[in-house]
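FORM 12-B: Structure-to-Sequence Request
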């Protein structure tokens, strides 16, 4: 039982140290923006207009999710 506890402790300590090394090597860039820029309306290919947001469609609502 004692060897199992030693192995579990060593594994825990090793994992903690590896995580700490990884985190310190991948620090956040302080000059990065907190949120990405929002898209504005842009004219795409074939006259397609790309805009951000969610719009209601002209389709029938789903009233059942049953599938045979």
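FORM 12-B RESPONSE
SEQUENCE OUT:
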């Amino acid at each position: 039982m004692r060897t199992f506890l030693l192995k579990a402790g060593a594994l825990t300590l090793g994992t903690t140290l590896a995580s700490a090394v990884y985190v310190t090597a991948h620090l956040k860039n302080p000059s990065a923006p907190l949120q990405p820029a929002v898209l504005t309306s842009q004219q795409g290919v074939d006259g397609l207009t790309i805009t951000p947001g969610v719009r209601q469609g002209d389709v029938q609502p789903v009233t059942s999710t049953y599938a045979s």
